[in-house]
Every structure is written in structure tokens, then in C-alpha cells.
Predict the structure.
Amino acid sequence: MTKYIVRRLLTAIPVLFGLSIVLFVFVHLLPGDPATALLGQHATPELTARIRTQLGLDKPLYEQYLTYISKLIHGDFGVSILDNRPILDEFATRFPGTIELTIGALTFAFGLGIPLGRFAARHIQGLGDGLVTIISLVGVSIPIFVLGYTLQYFLAVDLRWLPASSSLDARLTIPPVTHFILIDAALAGRGDAFIDGLRHLILPSIALGTIPLAIVTRITRASVLDVSNEDYVRTARAKGLTERRVDNRHVMRNAWLPVVTVIGLQVGGLLAGAVITETVFTWDGVGRWVFLAIQGHDYIVVQSVITIFAFIFLMVNLIVDIAYALLNPRIRYA
Amino acid sequence: MALLSVEDLVVRFRTRDATIHAVNGVSFELEEGERLGLVGESGCGKSVTNLAIIRLLPKPAGRLEGGHVLFDGVELSTMSESDIRDIRGKDIAMIFQDPMTSLNPVLTIEEQMVETIQAHRNVSASAARARAVELLSMVGIPRPEARLRDFPHQFSGGMRQRVMIAIALALEPKLLIADEPTTALDVTIQAQVLDLISNLTTERGTALILITHDLGVVAGMTQRINVMYAGFIVETAPTPELFEKPSHPYTVGLLHSIPRLDAPLDEALVPIEGRPPDMRRAPTGCPFAPRCAWRLDVCWSENPPLLAVDRYTRVVTTGPNATHRVACHNPPTSDERAAGRPLGARYRPAPPPPGMIDELAGERIGEVPATMGGPADDPLASGAGGGTSIGPSAGGLPVEPGGDERG
Amino acid sequence: MATTAATKGPIVAERASRGIWRDAMRRLVRNGPALVGLFFIVVFVLSAILAPVLTPYDPVTGSLANRLQGPGSVGHLLGTDLQGRDELARILYGARVSLLVGVGSVVMGLTIGGTIGAIAGAATGRVDTILMRIVDVLLAIPGILLAIGVVTWLGRGLPQITLAVAATNAPIFARILRGSLLANREQDYVIAARAIGAGRVRILVRHLLPNSLTSVIVAATLALATAIIDVAGLGFLGLGPADPRTAEWGTMLTDSTQYLREGPYLIFFPGLAIVISAIGFNLLGDGLRESLDPRLKR
């Protein structure tokens, strides 16, 4: 198993390297002149020349790259064009909000998806299965923003059951310690803020988590069906075990392995979807920041955040792969 | 009283597109401690029959649609689910073909053995564990205590099958059903595993049903053999008698298709022509008729019942003196048995009746190659029974008109 | 015993197979959901192509006096938008961008990604490793983020947007082609072909690639659904086609969000258009997958 882990780590390294090149290209190798792009309307020949030297644009490409990479390693992603603040710091402040949203969506997707998948598998070809299949299909075909506004309109604006936007009621304030709303509320002993935070979390989690929900449901259903047809399930029944035992111990213990592998991939989709979700719901997180940066032509923020997300995605996948190796005895005791 | 009595068992698989008539009225009995072989090609219903006995048919398609299964005097086919669960593993145990896929890959051997024991007996985990160790050494697995903690993929194929046998015999069942237990194993291991099964069942007086397509396997292991074809039992006899005097054309064909070292060098193998039957069609007439060289007209319309070869003996269904029974309207004579084909000078296998040809499915039924019929003329063209009365050649059916084409 | 006699032995029922494509088509036609999907797709494509015929209105100009008329108002089946433009016309013309970029990006992604994958699968060894690492880099940037990155880098023209979406689906095709080639190259029929002297290119083109065709077709159909959603997503974020007069569903939606209360229909109609088109391709893709699976013999 250690061989497996080492090999897995080794494949990650060239990808990281590749990512750094992509980021470099996106930020520095703009079609046209980056200096002019930065200066925009204020571009005069002398200013442009000065910026070019300042940015090191007159040096050879590989040198620019190396400088850039060494800065990255030290956490210097540069500064935002719009407000001149260091990107990494801004990211750190806003990321917890996105994490909360992501966790909310994951909980929704897996918490509902696995039981639905099991249900569908158990009632295969029946009405329940058909219904679940339709939900899966539609779920995968609805863009987040369409679903988000629909939810907003019907549940928040029309029926007023849940709050329409943002992460917390504007009238409630809690001291930002960790920047996780729920954690901060708990730390401050504010039960009302905690509940309010949860209420605000519901709609965005559903909007963001619906596509993963559809996928998880499908995979769970397929996995349970596959496993149910395996010989060892027949053996378990032949031994006279109760259906409950067969289901939990023999079917599910094998069926949820493929589902685990999907978690990593879903995180990527969630990070990408967070940009749109946070925009729709005016949620305080990195995604919204990216949206504002797009509007403000702050391409440095946009590209840096994309790269950081890619890095996080890579790491999450790595962890999931290792966890899978630990969970699957066939790999663990190969 | 027989330990197991199966009467007119009918099993069908009902799917969206078709109904498969897997078992069509199978009856047999088994005494305590008796060893019965169930032989036939893939799809003949041998496995399904036994799955039906313990009600393990794949749901939702598999349905036990008729007949009775009496085990120790109790009717199994209508029992409640919890009652039959009680019997599974404890009184009737089953082992399957592929030990790699028959064991749960994410559970240790210990867990899989202990759960079986604890499902039927109220014992502590440590007592169950001790029993598991005992069982593993009984089947010949070295260092059993250590091996308990291993996972199935850490055993070799033969070892895994031994583990399956250990699990099956853990609760001293009265009947062991072994479904192709050695088919997935190396030939050298096969013998070992078969010996193990033989010894253990004899020691404990466990009855055995051995399912296989390999005649060599049953020859050494069983006291009686049922030959199945297309969901019917077509012949049943004590083992030595079946090999000496096969009385059903199918059995004759089977025995002749095994190459033998003591046969003359230039003697051709006589294969059974044709393909396995389509189980989607409800059976009419003898199921073997399309491939049978001995068939008569009546074979197309009437399915022969299983009757004693010697019509005047009283039928004994179990034990070493069980009556040799065969389901055939025209069983081969002893010379024909030896030759592997009919020997009448002007004999032709009967052509199918007009209604048989299914235009819709575009099937071709009932042509037997001239090699099996002996004389050179194409049987269909011979005019026997008015050969071309077979009917219009619809749907592109290449039915020969009288006599002009043999090729 | 003459064995030159009839080799037609007794045969029992077998439904004649008329080739994998015919069989697949036969199964597909019987697949209800797939037909529904096909219907949606046809509606989508016809809307795009026949837009000028289907509506008399100009999607670009409208009179402000006419703005924000609700659906069902006189002459405007789906109402008008904030600039007084007929909504139905904008939806029909919007289909053009979705169709163009959707199909374009899939074709581009398939060509580029498929070629990379095929080379990797055929060459193996170091070439394979290097190419696949490049693909992994692309895959490391999840979904729409990659498209955002490319458009932010290259600009908001239609070709750039097409390339951006192509970048997100190219890795999938690369993986499929490579996987298919790797799986098939050890098959007996390949060895047989080599045994009679077929050259590597010939084997690749005549044997290996056709066997990848089914996976590619299914993947391409499903990728179209994703492409349509991604294009709309880009539009939603403000990265759609730069020309403000172009009707594009995502952009239409985001332009109307301030009017959620007064004119929710302006959000729902483009949303519905996106969903229906995407469902169409997803349904068809699933149906194709089922009917092209050679293991399902029916």
C-alpha cells in the first residue's frame, strides 16, 4: 500500500508544476501587453515602460516564471488590481464562507443522495426507481443559477419561508474570529445567530448541491445494484442471514466504496459552482469575490483564485485516494 | 421417508421482454446421506432447480411457479421467509462455483464464518471463533488462527473453496448442495477439493447434490445421476448403470462426445448437433426433439414421461437400487448406444409438423444433418411425410424443396 | 461418414442480428426517454436555425415604451424584456449562440482531446505519461473555472468562448480515446490483424478507432449538455459574448436578476430554455449509452 501512496504522490508533482505554468501564462502572458492592460486608459509610453520594468516584463520568460514561482511559494500571489490588497490574505478571510457553503452542499448531496440511491436500487424498475431516475436526470440538467433563482423566488420571495440572500441577517453581528459564521456564532455563545446562519445556509446548499446529489444518487444506485448481483451476496443469503444483515454488512459495505471515490471529484464541482451560487445568493465567500473581480476586470484575482482552487482540488483528490486505499482491503493488504 | 422430495418443480423467469421456462416439472428424491449428481449443459436448469429448493432465486424475475419441495417432511416452497432462512445454512447448505466472487472481499474470513455460526446458534463470539478455527483445520488450511484475520483475496483459489466448504459444513447440515464446486479451479486442485467434499460428507452422513456439466466429476463422486435437459430430467439411474447403459439419446450423445483413450484412433467423435434450446418458448413435445436422431413423429407433440427402462419393475426412486428411468419415446438399443447413432437401414428422424415453423422468429427447426441419419438423402427432402408439406417458405426461411439441394 | 453433407444442423430460435448499428437503433427507438430527449433536441435545433422564420421580431432592438410586458400580453407570447425586446424572439435567437458554441466546443474538444488521447494510447510509454500529465493539469481546474480562466485570459469573443468550453471537455475525450485504445490493443482481433501483416496505422484507423466510436458518441452527446450549461454559466457571470446585442440565455438571465420580483418570467424563460436543451442531450446520451452497450443482448 505504501507503494500505492508514493506513486500517487509522485503523479501529483508534475501536475502541480503544470498548474503553476498555467497560472503564469494566464496572468503574465496576456495577448497584448500586460502593462497596457493594467494601466488601461492611463497608458502613456513612459508609464508603460516604467510598469514593464517594475513588473520585470523585460526579462526573459523563464526568469519571469522563476521569480513568479518563488513568490508563489512564499504566499505572494500579488495584489488585487481593484483594492491593492494582498490576494492570499483576502482569500484566507473569505474562504471559510465558501467552506461552509461547500460543506452544506456536500451534506445535502450525500445525506440525501445515498439513501435515495439505495431506495431506487431496492425498488428497481418500480415507481420509486423511476421517480428517482427522473430527479437525477433533471438535477444534472439544471444550471445552478437557474435553480438558485427559482428557489429564491418560490421559497424566499413568494412564500417567505427562508431568507433570500447573504449568509447572515444584516442586523445580527458576531465578532469574526475564524470567519466561519457557524463557528463564530457558537464561540460567541449566540444561539440565535447560529440558527439564523443555518437558515441562510439552506437554499444555497440546495442550489449548489443538486448536481452532486443527482450524481451521488446515480452512482449509489448503480453501485448497490452491482453489488446486489454479486455472488457473495447470494452466499450470504444462502447462509441464512437476515435481509437486514445482508444489506448492511454485505451490500452496503461494498457499495459505498465507489461512492467514496466520487467525493473528491464532487469537491471540484462544488468549488467551481460556488462562484455562481455565491453570486446568486450574495453569499460572503471567495466565489462572490471572484464574481466582483470579473466585473471589475481584476483578472489577477480571478486567475489566482482559480489556481488556488485547482490546488485545493488536487489535494482533496489525493487525500480521498489515500483514504480509499485504506478503506479497501484489496488495496490495503495487496 | 426421503430426506428431500422434489415434486413437479416449475421455475420461470419473468422479464419485461420474455419469460424463460427454466425448470419444467422436475421430480426427484434423495435419502439421508445419499449422493446425487445433477448433470447437464449450461442453461438446462440444474442450478436453478437447487436455488429454487432453498428459495434463492434471483428476484424479482425468478419465480417458483409450481410443485412441492419437501425437506424432512416440511414443505419449503410455501414457507415464510424467516423460516426458510432458518433452514438455509443450518439444515441445507450450498456452495457455489467461483470462490473468489462468492466471498465478501471487504470482510475477514473470521467475520464471514462467525456470522454464519452466530446466525443460527446462540453462542459467544469467542466460541464461534474457536469453532471457526476447528473448521478451517478440518478442511486442511494450515495455521488457521492466523488465517482467520485474512481477507479472501489473500487466499489461493483452492483454499478459498475450502473455506467455503468449511462455512457450509459449519452447522452440520443434513444436505450439502455443491454447484459446480470445482469448475473454476485448476485441474490439480479439483481432485483435492472433490476428495475433501467426498470425505467430509461421508464422515458426517451429509447428503450431497453435486451439480456439474462434467461427467468425469460425477462418475467418481455420486451414487446416482439425474441428467437434465431444457428444464426436464431426461434420465436417472445409479451411476454405474448410467455409464454402462445410457438410455436417452442425449446421454448417449454426451458419452460419445468425450474423447476416450481406449477408442480406436480413427473413430470420429460424434458431437450432438445443433444448439441449446431456446428457453423462452414454452415446452411442447420432447425438448430434445430438434437435435435428436432417434425421433419419431410423436416426439414433436408429446413430451415423454420419465418411465422405468424395464417397464415391468416397480419404481424405486432412491438408493443404490434406484430404478433406471428415462424419458424417451424411442430409446436407443444397446447396439445403437455403442455406435452413438441410430442403426436402422431406412430410418429417418421425423420431420417437424407444419405448425412448428415459426415465421415470426425466422427460425429453422428440425433439420438433422445427413451424418446422423445414416443414409445419404436429406431427410426433409425424402418425401417422408410429404417433405414439402412443411409449409410456405415465409420470412426467408431456407426450407429445401424436395430433393434438389443437399448442400 | 460423409461430412460434406449438410452443414445446416438443427437450429433453434435466434433473432437475426443485422449489425450493431441497426440493433442499436432498434433499441433506441423503443427507449421512451431517449425519444423525448430527441424531441427536445429537435425543438432546440430548429429554434436556432429557423429563428428568423419563427418570429417577426428583431431580438436586438425594442422600444422602451414596451418594456417589461408580462407573458401573454398582446403580440408577445413570452413578454418583453427591460429594453422592450420580444422575449420569445430573444430566446429563439439565443438558441443560436448555445447551439453554435455548444457544437463547436464539442467538436473542438473531441478533435484536440481525442487526438491527444489516441496518440497517448497508441504510443504508450513516456509519450503517454507526458500527454496524460498535461491532461491531468487541465482536469485539475474544475469545470467552469477553467472556462472562466480561458475567457478572462483571451477575451469574450465567440471563438474564445468556444475554445474555453472545449478546454473543459477535451480531457474527457482524451481519457476515453486513450482508455479505449489501451483496452483494445491487446485484443485478439488486433493480434490477428498484425499476424496478417497490417501496419500500425491501418490497425489504428480500421480496427481500434471504430471500436471507440460508441463511447465517443455517448460522451459527445453528454458533453453537449454540459457545454450548453457552461456557456450559459459564462454568460451569467458576465463572460458571455461581448456584443451586448447578442441574445444569449445566460446573459439574458443575469441582466434580469434585479427584476426578480416584478418580472420573474425574464429569469424563468431563459432558464427553462437552458434546462430543456440540456435535458434533451442528457436523455439522448443516456439512451445511446444503453442501446450501444454490446453486452445487452436483447
Summary: Residues 1-15 of chain C have pLDDT under 50 and may be disordered. The domain at 24-51+87-296 of chain C is CATH 1.10.3720.10 (MetI-like fold). The interface with chain B takes residues 1-16, 298 of chain C (CB under 8 Å).
